[in-house]
TrEMBL record:
Family affiliation: Belongs to the methyltransferase superfamily. RsmI family.
Function, in words: Catalyzes the 2'-O-methylation of the ribose of cytidine 1402 (C1402) in 16S rRNA.
Any one Pfam family match given in the protein's UniProt record, by short name: TP_methylase
Enzyme Commission designation: 2.1.1.198
Keyword Transferase assigned: yes
Keyword S-adenosyl-L-methionine: yes
Catalyzed chemical reaction(s): cytidine(1402) in 16S rRNA + S-adenosyl-L-methionine = 2'-O-methylcytidine(1402) in 16S rRNA + S-adenosyl-L-homocysteine + H(+)
Taxonomic path: Bacteria, Pseudomonadati, Bacteroidota, Cytophagia, Cytophagales
Keywords for this protein: Cytoplasm, Methyltransferase, rRNA processing, S-adenosyl-L-methionine, Transferase
Listed name of the protein: Ribosomal RNA small subunit methyltransferase I
Tetrapyrrole methylase domain location: 11-209
Length: 232
């Protein structure tokens, strides 16, 4: 009996470097060169990456503020046979970045989705912390306002290593609140500018980290906080 031809991938999730452009994979370069259009969180940022790779591709904006408006039209195009690559400004789309909605709707329509392995900030930050990586929980960004204190209270009994993303202007407040909720002597690490020239990882107690970063005149770069779990 003849076998069915494999379904062709409609949507590729393509990780991009989080800083060092050498971290793009050969497979990612090939896929970006083969697809019909690149869906980008910021077309200017992704445009510079494509230019660096020597690729010229049609691009379309796809970000947090327009994804609900454009997803239906994108699905129509995908069903007609277009192949698309979804990228974010840095790292893997769908991890604290847009992507989940489009992936879910593609799968609901029976469209094949393929995710390439690649750069993401949480793994190097976790391994550089020196805390246990056998079991960990990725919390992403804590709620900014509503639900923030509730989530912090829920984490007080967490025994796994905890990973958070944070922005430079909220890092001090977050470290202070983590110290208050989990204890000032709880060990943690703060990684910023990962894979870049001025990459930095500082490991200390939450109280000491809050004091360190609170005393800095300026803080730059996206930040990953890794907190040791509750010790039994």
């Amino acid at each position: 009996m003849p076998t069915e031809a494999p379904t062709e991938t409609a949507l590729y999730i393509v990780p991009t470097p989080i800083g060092n452009l050498e971290d793009i994979t050969l497979r990612a370069i090939r896929v970006l060169g083969e697809v019909d259009v690149v869906l980008a969180e910021d077309t200017r940022t992704s445009g510079r990456l494509l230019q660096h790779l020597g690729l010229k591709k049609p691009m379309q904006s796809y970000h947090l503020h327009n994804e609900h408006k454009v997803v239906a039209h994108l699905l129509e195009r995908l069903e007609k046979g277009e192949r698309m690559a979804l990228v974010s400004d840095a790292g893997t789309p769908g991890i604290s970045d847009p992507g989940f909605l489009l992936v879910r709707e593609c799968l609901a329509k029976g469209l094949k989705v393929e995710c390439l392995p690649g750069a993401t900030a949480l793994v190097p930050a976790l391994l550089k912390s020196g805390f246990g990586a056998e079991r960990f929980t990725f919390e992403g960004f804590l709620p900014v306002k509503k639900g923030r204190q509730t989530r912090l209270r829920e984490l007080t009994a967490e025994t796994r290593t905890m990973i958070f993303y944070e922005s430079p202007h909220r890092i001090v407040k977050t470290l202070e609140q983590l110290a208050e909720a989990l204890g000032p002597e709880r060990m943690a690490s703060v990684s910023r500018e990962l894979t870049k020239l001025f990459e930095e990882t500082v490991t200390d107690t939450l109280a000491a980290l809050a004091k360190d970063f609170g005393g800095r005149s300026s803080i730059k770069g996206e930040i990953v906080i890794v907190v040791q779990g509750l010790r039994e």
